[in-house]
């Protein structure tokens, strides 16, 4: 019902339901007040507009009982004072806590009567000063008086804020509410400081002490319920000053709000009071970037005004040069990640402050832009978020429409935050559950939300929440990048009146780009493409660049995106997919900003990008069976007669599969063991396809091969544990066909094997396909191919311990399967000797390992961080497992296994080692394998050495799945800890 409609229409007798009174006690409560619908229709119509009419009515009953005889005065005033009705019913229908305050202090209703105005700063200061000047009447009375005065001031503000929900009173601007709450807080802090000085110092002269407000209080945008962050500056940092500050905090926390000094230098571990010189020294030498960001909102609030001014004058210049610090970018990114991780996943969509598209997104973006551009533009030296947004818009750093939209969304979310906090005067930022219609309906009414043509108030609130969260999320990216992109004119790097070249470079540098000039060149090339492509890129790039800035190497990512975009000019689906499927675009940016290995593959296998989307059963990147892919690869290659073309087909399919596997790996969709198995599968398929093609091309005229050929995988290929940079270690074995001479068979098979190796090893832009046969008998000096009988004779008579050890990982991978099976049966007696290995052989293996440790490690390599040969690395774990196999495989059949991890599990199951030791070795093997794979993904070429601290280590950490915060230092610490523990186990098992 519209309160502005004619009184004759409003005077029609409504039902209680139409008045919003659905509580079963409504009739009884009306009777207690002496109200009935016929005689109090105007009052009840006003009551019906309260966010919760039943709660307001119950509070009025309690207030009437508390007033006693004074109820008649209030009752009469309600009938005649429309403004009082709006203010009182608005408060009682919105805030249970303020209702309790009115019941405890019933005469406070007079504060809401007549023409109510907010007191000035001076009036507030006088009121609080007079409150503490009154002589004490009882223990704790000062705190009680201060608490009552503070609640009365909040009551008046809330009443004016809420009155429009009932009687269409003027709406208080959001900025006025936050500013007045800060003014109340200043007066309250000054009063608390006065009492603390009197308590600690008595008649003695109190120390000079300035109270610096920080956070929302410092910015004069305080919430109804919020901690008030402060920093203390003293003329001297003596015990008396600290006692005064501590007593002020205690008293203020008891009377008003929680006072928090955690933003002081060194946080809660630092001195509560420091001198100005001590503050200056700390910020010059020790302060982190977040501490300068916090100082953006610093403001003298109470205490010694001159000392407060000196503090601001001394520290603010440091704030505006913080973006020049070496660690500025990494610290800003780390802060953003920490904030995101604070929100539990189950409430993320309900979090007004820290959730996606929430208040912190706006505040973080605004503060970052202030820090970046404030060094050269003093108009940005403002504390309030809304004022800073306006200044950024006026300076051309943010588009005008975006400024207006972001401000509107920010104020809407803050309005909801205020209403939620007023309900019980509790600090909260959490929306009601989305299926709690009653709580959401109350929130909609308390926030002035009215039905529109298609939705009731509840529906409008849900739609507004969705719209504002989405808008903030999208504008967050546009704030950083849209003005920058708009300033790139079609001619090239020519800037409009908005952002200057220097400002654009500063902004890109602050967002993690180490080569901002090159980044601007790439951006200009992308948005200045002709026609539709350029327009779509202009729309896409703000969001893409935002995602790229979260990757460890945005410079490389942007270059890779430009290269792929230019290569995909003829493919209309490319930009359409990125525009319409945000999951694809976000995943692509993560991959491009992390890996040098994948972009080159995507350039030649772009269709994999389409698989970055989600299908009905999950990510399409996983909607593939490696064995099926391998079969298709062999079949497709087999349709070609020319072996060169056949291998080209195999390479093409391998390229696509490598791009798929590596993409899924980087996106955290595959376990490292699955990655190794998939890479092995594709390598085996390529070997099989190449061998088939070469055999077909080398058949004699009668079409019958002189020999059967099998390829035996060795090392990681045999163990199905290949990494991205692994070669294929193999043995070639043949068996003469019926009627063929051994020499002819070996000669023909040798030609086939050599041609297969040569064709696979042909130079290509793809990752290399090196086939290594150096583990064959007699090594490089021995024949490339032997018959199975020749292998048997050699191993019976001449096999060295290292050759026996190498056979532990032999497995048939390609060629004639029956021949491969018989070869494995033949070598079993060598690699799994019936009586185990002799002590001399064990000693020889230990000596070989010692030589490997001392001689094979590359010059300059760090033995602690070399993933293959370093301490607790892959070689340590694999040699230990293989020694266990040599010693005990004769008794434990489960050790007849080429997989390192499966053999490790078998050793633990057979109690050859403890479960704890097995877990430590397994963790080290997985950690080193992830790191080794990550090195190839990041560098684009094989590598075993982890880099030192810096961007590349951070990138390796992300590529290895270290998602805790992308911190390379933490990743390295974990690697060193895991491998150190594994090395201790290796010493115990291998050396002893």
UniProtKB/TrEMBL annotation:
Belongs to the GlnE family. Involved in the regulation of glutamine synthetase GlnA, a key enzyme in the process to assimilate ammonia. When cellular nitrogen levels are high, the C-terminal adenylyl transferase (AT) inactivates GlnA by covalent transfer of an adenylyl group from ATP to specific tyrosine residue of GlnA, thus reducing its activity. Conversely, when nitrogen levels are low, the N-terminal adenylyl removase (AR) activates GlnA by removing the adenylyl group by phosphorolysis, increasing its activity. Keywords: ATP-binding, Ligase, Magnesium, Multifunctional enzyme, Nucleotide-binding, Nucleotidyltransferase, Transferase. Its EC number is 2.7.7.89, 2.7.7.42. GO terms for cellular component: cytosol. Residues 1-484 are annotated as: Adenylyl removase. Residues 489-992 are annotated as: Adenylyl transferase. It catalyses: [glutamine synthetase]-L-tyrosine + ATP = [glutamine synthetase]-O(4)-(5'-adenylyl)-L-tyrosine + diphosphate; [glutamine synthetase]-O(4)-(5'-adenylyl)-L-tyrosine + phosphate = [glutamine synthetase]-L-tyrosine + ADP. It holds the Pfam family GlnE. InterPro entries: GlnE (IPR023057), GlnE_rpt_dom (IPR005190), NT_sf (IPR043519), PII_UdlTrfase/GS_AdlTrfase (IPR013546). Residues 87-310, 586-824 form the Glutamate-ammonia ligase adenylyltransferase repeated domain. Its cofactor is Mg(2+). Gene3D superfamilies: Beta Polymerase, domain 2 (3.30.460.10), Nucleotidyltransferases domain 2 (1.20.120.330). This is Bifunctional glutamine synthetase adenylyltransferase/adenylyl-removing enzyme. It comes from Mycobacterium cookii. Residues 334-480, 847-989 form the PII-uridylyltransferase/Glutamine-synthetase adenylyltransferase domain.
């Amino acid at each position: 019902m519209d309160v502005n409609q004619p009184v004759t229409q409003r005077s029609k007798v409504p039902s209680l339901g139409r008045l919003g009174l659905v509580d079963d006690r409504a009739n009884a409560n009306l009777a207690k007040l002496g109200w009935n619908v016929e005689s109090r229709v105007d009052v009840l119509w006003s009551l019906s507009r309260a966010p919760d009419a039943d709660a307001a009515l119950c509070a009025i009953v309690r207030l009437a009982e508390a007033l006693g005889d004074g109820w008649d005065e209030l009752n009469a005033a309600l009938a005649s004072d429309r403004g009082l009705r709006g203010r009182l019913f608005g408060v009682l229908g919105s805030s249970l806590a303020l209702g309790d305050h009115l019941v405890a202090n019933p005469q406070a209703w007079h504060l809401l009567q007549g023409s109510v105005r907010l007191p000035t700063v001076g009036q507030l200061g006088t009121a609080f000063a007079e409150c503490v000047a009154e002589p004490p009447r009882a223990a704790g009375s000062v705190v009680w008086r201060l608490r009552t005065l503070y609640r009365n001031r909040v009551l008046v503000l809330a009443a004016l804020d809420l009155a429009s929900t009932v009687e269409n009173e003027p709406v208080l601007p959001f900025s006025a509410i936050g500013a007045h709450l800060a003014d109340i807080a200043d007066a309250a802090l000054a009063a608390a400081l006065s009492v603390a000085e009197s308590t600690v110092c008595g008649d003695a002269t109190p120390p000079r002490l300035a109270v610096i407000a920080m956070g929302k209080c410092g910015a004069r945008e305080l919430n109804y319920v919020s901690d008030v962050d402060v920093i203390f500056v003293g003329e001297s940092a003596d015990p008396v000053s600290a006692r005064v500050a501590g007593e002020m905090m205690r008293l203020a926390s008891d009377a008003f709000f929680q006072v928090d000094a955690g933003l002081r230098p060194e946080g809660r571990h630092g001195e509560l009071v420091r001198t100005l010189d001590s503050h200056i020294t700390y910020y010059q030498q020790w302060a982190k970037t977040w501490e300068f960001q916090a100082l953006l909102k610093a403001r003298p609030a109470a205490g010694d005004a001159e000392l407060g001014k000196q503090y601001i004058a001394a520290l603010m210049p440091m704030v505006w040069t913080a973006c020049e610090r070496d660690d500025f970018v990494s610290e800003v990114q780390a802060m953003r990640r920490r904030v995101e991780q604070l929100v539990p996943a189950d409430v993320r969509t309900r979090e007004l402050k820290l959730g996606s598209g929430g208040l912190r997104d706006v505040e973080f973006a605004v503060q970052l832009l202030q820090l970046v551009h404030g060094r050269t533009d003093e108009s940005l030296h403002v504390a309030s978020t809304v004022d800073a947004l306006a200044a950024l818009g006026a300076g051309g750093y943010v588009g005008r429409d975006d400024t207006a939209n972001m401000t509107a969304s920010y104020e809407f979310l803050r309005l909801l935050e205020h209403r939620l906090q007023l309900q019980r005067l509790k600090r909260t930022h959490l929306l009601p559950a989305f299926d709690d219609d009653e709580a959401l309906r109350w929130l909609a009414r308390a926030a002035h939300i009215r039905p529109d043509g298609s939705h009731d108030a509840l529906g409008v609130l849900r739609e507004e929440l969705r719209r504002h969260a989405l808008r903030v999320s999208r504008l967050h990216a546009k704030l950083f990048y849209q003005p920058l992109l708009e300033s790139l004119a079609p001619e090239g790097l020519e800037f409009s009146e908005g952002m200057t070249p220097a400002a654009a470079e500063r902004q890109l540098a602050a967002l993690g780009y180490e080569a901002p000039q090159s980044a601007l060149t790439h951006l200009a090339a992308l948005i200045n493409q002709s026609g539709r492509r350029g327009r779509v890129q202009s729309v896409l790039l703000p969001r893409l660049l935002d995602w790229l800035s979260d990757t460890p190497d945005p410079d490389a990512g942007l270059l890779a995106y430009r290269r792929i975009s230019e290569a995909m000019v003829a493919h209309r689906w490319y930009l359409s997919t990125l525009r319409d499927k945000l999951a694809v675009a976000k995943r692509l940016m993560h991959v491009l900003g992390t890996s040098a290995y994948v972009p080159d593959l995507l350039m030649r296998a772009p269709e994999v990008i389409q698989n970055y989307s989600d299908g009905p059963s999950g990510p399409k990147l996983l909607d593939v069976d490696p064995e099926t892919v391998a079969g298709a690869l062999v079949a497709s290659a087999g349709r070609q007669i020319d072996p060169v073309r056949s291998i080209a087909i195999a390479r093409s399919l391998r390229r696509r599969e490598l791009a798929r596997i590596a993409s899924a790996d980087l996106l955290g969709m595959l376990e490292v063991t699955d990655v190794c198995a998939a890479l092995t599968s594709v390598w085996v398929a390529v070997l099989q396809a190449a061998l088939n093609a070469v055999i077909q091309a080398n058949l004699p005229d009668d079409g019958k091969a002189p020999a059967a050929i099998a390829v035996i995988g060795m090392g990681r290929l045999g163990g199905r544990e290949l990494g991205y940079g692994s070669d294929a270690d193999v043995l070639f074995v043949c068996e003469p066909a019926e009627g063929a001479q051994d020499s002819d068979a070996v000669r023909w098979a040798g030609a086939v094997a050599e041609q297969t190796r040569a064709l696979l090893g042909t130079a290509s832009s793809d990752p290399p396909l090196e086939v290594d046969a150096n583990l064959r008998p007699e090594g490089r000096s021995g024949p490339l191919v032997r018959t199975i009988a020749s292998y048997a004779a050699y191993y019976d008579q001449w096999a060295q311990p290292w050759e026996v050890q190498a056979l532990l990982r032999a497995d048939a991978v390609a060629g004639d399967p029956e021949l491969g099976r018989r070869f494995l049966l033949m070598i079993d007696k060598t690699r799994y000797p019936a009586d185990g290995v002799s002590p001399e052989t064990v000693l020889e293996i230990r000596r070989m390992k010692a030589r490997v440790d001392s001689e094979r490690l590359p010059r300059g390599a760090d033995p602690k961080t070399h993933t293959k040969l370093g301490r607790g690395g892959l070689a340590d774990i694999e040699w230990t497992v293989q020694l266990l196999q040599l010693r005990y495989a004769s008794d434990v059949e489960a050790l007849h296994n080429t997989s390192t991890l499966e053999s490790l599990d078998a050793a633990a199951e057979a109690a050859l080692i403890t479960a704890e030791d097995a877990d430590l070795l397994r963790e080290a093997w997985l950690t080193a394998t992830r790191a080794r794979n990550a090195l190839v993904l990041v560098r684009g070429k094989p590598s075993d050495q982890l880099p030192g601290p810096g961007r590349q280590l951070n990138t390796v950490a992300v590529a290895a799945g270290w998602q805790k915060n992308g911190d390379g230092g933490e990743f390295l610490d974990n690697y060193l800890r895991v491998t150190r523990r594994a090395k201790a186990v290796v010493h115990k098992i291998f050396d002893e």
